[in-house]
Specification:
- The protein is built from one helix and twelve strands; from the N terminus they run βββββββββββαβ.
- By secondary structure, the protein is mainly beta.
- The strands form three sheets. The chain has a seven-stranded antiparallel β-sheet with strand order 4-5-6-11-10-9-8, with helices on one face. The protein has a three-stranded antiparallel β-sheet with strand order 1-2-7, with no helix packed on it.
- The longest helix has 9 residues.
Amino acid sequence: IFHRYPEVDEYRFSGDPEDVGDLGNIRPSYVPDGFVETEALELMGNWYITYQNEAGVYIDFSVIAAADGSFLGFDNEHSTHSEITVNGMKGELYTAVSSEYENYLLLSDENKGCIYFFSSKAGTETLIQIAESLGAVS
């Protein structure tokens, strides 16, 4: 369910988290040169991963079960919205209006029953490239 508020777009999800399985092995095979994984946090089956470079630029990546009660909300006031498809997954791309704000990419993996969410001051093309490389790692 999508709600647009004056300063925030909110996405609420529904589904059974038991159908999702382990999300901890999903990672991008591509991150830009100089970026390394600096944090990986599991919280109630969802994963929150941060990549950062030496300049302090970060890319946050989350894998979230599309379960009843889960939601994402983020700034819509400082970005332009467009719909996108990446590897057959429908998504929402928010391009920041200036470099002081973050870009956001939200993808819905209906086959897996989860959501992939990216946020960063890195360019939207970079976020799309990273999203295109998502897959299971061992």
